Structure formats: C-alpha cells, structure tokens
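Could you help me review a protein record that somebody else here produced? My question to you is simply how this chain folds and whether the tokens agree. Thanks in advance; the entry in question is below:
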Amino acid sequence: MDQKNLRTDLHIHTTASDGTWGPEEVIEELKSNDIGLFSITDHDTTESIEKAAALAEENGISFIPGVEVSVSYNKANYHILGLGINPQNHGLQAILERNRVLMEQKDDESILYLEARHGCVSFCEYREYINNPERGGWKALNYLIDKGLCSSYRDFFSLFIGYGNPFEKLDFAMPHEAVEAIRSAGGIPVLAHPGASFYSKDYKAVIKYMLTQGIGGIECFHPENDHEITQYCLGVCKEQGLLITGGSDCHGDFVQGRRLGHPEIYLSSLRLDGIHF
C-alpha cells in the first residue's frame, strides 16, 4: 500500500489504563478496520507496549510506541502524548509512576469521602476489591458501579457535587517536566486533544502556553476537536514546523463516541518527522 493512503490511528487505550481491549483485541480491531499504523497511548503507563509491538510485527501493522502523560497547569489537568518513546527510559517511568500513585491516592480519598455519606460504601471493602480491567475505567468507578451509586464514568463525577471533581487540582507532572521526560525517552511530546471538554475553553491560550513548554506537535485530529479547532491547530503546526497527529482516543467499549479509526485519518494528512515506524 502507498504509505500516503495508510489509514492511521495514533491514540488508543488498552486495559493497561482505562480501555476494555487488551493488545490482542486492539490488533484484531485494527485489522478489521484496515488501519495500518497505530499507537498505544495509555494513561501514565507503558504496560501494553511490548505485547502490542510484538503482535503488530506478527501481523504486518506499523506501530509507534506511545503514552499519554497527565500534567497539571493553572489548577487544571491536561494530557501530553509521547510518541516514539523508549518505554524503558527511567526518567519517563519515574514520572509515570508518580502520576499513578497520585491517582490511587485520589481514588482512596474519594472513597473515604463517600463512605461518610453512603452506608453501602466501605473503604476497607474497597481496598480488598479486585477490579476487572476488561470493564474499562478505573477501580473506584467500577466499585461504585457495583454498589449501585453510579452507572457510568459521567455519573461518577455527579457523586461529588459540592465537593468538586476529585481529579481536579492533582499535582501531576508540570508540562515542561513531561516534555523533558518524553524527549529523554527519544519521543516527541504532542499536546493531546486541545478541544477536550475538560480543558480550558480558551484552546488558543492553552496551545500558546504549551508551546512555551516545548511541545513538538499537536493532536489536530480528534473526536473532540471541532472544525474550527482542527483548522487552527493545523495552521499553528504548519507555521511552527510541529508534528501533526491524530487519533480516535478509542477506549474499546468504555467511552461512547470514541470509535477506532474515527475520525478517519490517513498518513498523508499527518506530519510525523522524526518518528520511526
């Protein structure tokens, strides 16, 4: 196949973070959708990369190792993709581990908050609870679903009205720290989904700031980027000589509206200079 016509999806999650598919299922879905280039970009973990890389090679599919790093800026959370990384890099792994610990601590805090308000919630029981990663999401969410307090990740946040989003104000890595770690791992840092609903609505200001932090690309194509945002991002990338990337942000069956291969992206629409696949 002419590489320009290579169908591409550079933002996919697995059971290693909050998706419902393991690497095997991802590969089968890629084959079904004629996607020839992909990246696994789990939240703050590279656990699925080795298996995905081996399966991609076996099936003749091009693969870019990746990760989605949580960062904090101006009392809000943002995501930076690291594409083309060496997952064994110690500096990158240190930041990912720290982010995961923070999330686990916040989950504990959330359950303790709800224990004081709902008799069915028990922190001791939660600590013993075994989460099934194939359900997608995260441990605290699935525990509360099983308790009947919510039915989806959207419901989860409604439990904290008056207390605030439990994931806000987490002291994740600073953007420049994530950028430096990704580059030290041989990757290129890319601002993920500038149109995301949990980002500042002033996406232009977010992009401007992230440029000062050293990002090397922008995820121009994403389900939450409308036409205006996509065109603005493309203009910035072309003007600044940045990577142009895109992906579905597919979480398997966990997040409705995030279907593998949508938006439909071909390699000819991207700029991936410096990334080997």
Summary: The chain has one domain: 3-97+169-269. The CA atoms of residues 204 and 232 lie 8 Å apart. Residues 90-115 form the longest helix (26 residues). Residues 3-97+169-269 form a domain with the TIM Barrel fold (CATH 3.20.20.140).
